[in-house]
Protein: Acetate kinase
Organism: Thermovirga lienii
Amino acid sequence: MKVLVINCGSSSLKYQLFDMTDESVLAKGLVERIGIEGSRIKHTKTGQDTVIKNMPIPDHKVGIKATLDALLDKDHGALGSLDELHAVGHRVVHGGEKFSSSVVVNKEVLEAIEECVPLAPLHNPANLMGIKAMMELLPETPQVAVFDTAFHQTMPKHAYMYGVPYHYYEEYKTRRYGFHGTSHYYVAYRAAEILGKPVEDLKIVTCHLGNGSSITAVDGGKSVDTSLGFGTVPGVIMGTRCGEIDPTVVLYLMEKENLDTKLMSHILHKESGILGISGISSDMRDVEEAAEGGNERAKLALDMLCYGIRKHIGAYAAAMNGLDAIVFTAGIGENSSLVREKVLEELSFLGIKVDYEKNKSRGKEVIISTEDSKVVAMVVPTNEELVIAKDTLELTK
């Protein structure tokens, strides 16, 4: 059975085609610069070189059509016919309180995703465009929506509520939602498999660290707290996002700089975090290199990130009343041995000891703590697309 996974952004579209008999990837690609000059599709059939085709892609429907054409290509495609496609799974960023699991798309689901647009104005509209375009081009093929927020719907109310007047929650649903749920779910359950223990018996902190980052407490296989909240700014500092901040600072800067909400939002989302502190880059590789060369602001950005990660791990160990494992994933988590080392060395009170040789690994599943550590630390590369494919298959069998 072949399942296509689609992840639509505002001007891009990523895809992977899976053969679910063995969960192998048959082909994958990226449609770039949708609605922008210089648009193109990059397509890779497993075992072949990447093929790049420059072409006008004015909207997501054309992007979806280009994706299907690439998958059907006689030389580089992986489908003989669209009839081979069992179902399509779509990443949807925000499901609000409506969805605690993945669902087959119908009219009511589309309306519910539309209702969540104010909660994710940059992402949900693009996700919707991808779903609608695919439904129009493949009207007989089942479509499934998999939500970033769904995994976190198990958080208790005392963990997701904010201390603002309760009627704002009742009227506008102002609460912690959390994101990267598909990633946190995958690495937590995979960590349990690696450890050979039931996930129901484990207390795990999963650290999804990339240009966007979040840390989650997973107790018995369920999310009980997470660092991102109503939006994608809180928690640790990120590539260009500020992380947790006293809201009074926001009000103060708006008054001092005469900033409206749009400008302030741009600063918090696009000019802050690792870029704003270092003044060099939002890419941790550039910042690590500068820090090693003696750049003080780069060192500060690195220290702030690692300190923030340690704080959240400590807090979540307290929230769960225990800790069995720490899992690092995503771009920084999988590849930065320096960040992992700086985080774990200052958590020795938990009984963690770093295996420095194993920690040199990049992008591979590996336990990076010593055998006598009381808490296991490990790297698990994330695979959100596979989770989406599995959910899609399960719901459409």
Q: What stands out?
A: Residues 2-147 form a domain with the Nucleotidyltransferase; domain 5 fold (CATH 3.30.420.40). DSSP finds 14 helices and 14 strands in the chain. The longest strand covers residues 24-32. The CA atoms of residues 250 and 265 lie 10 Å apart.
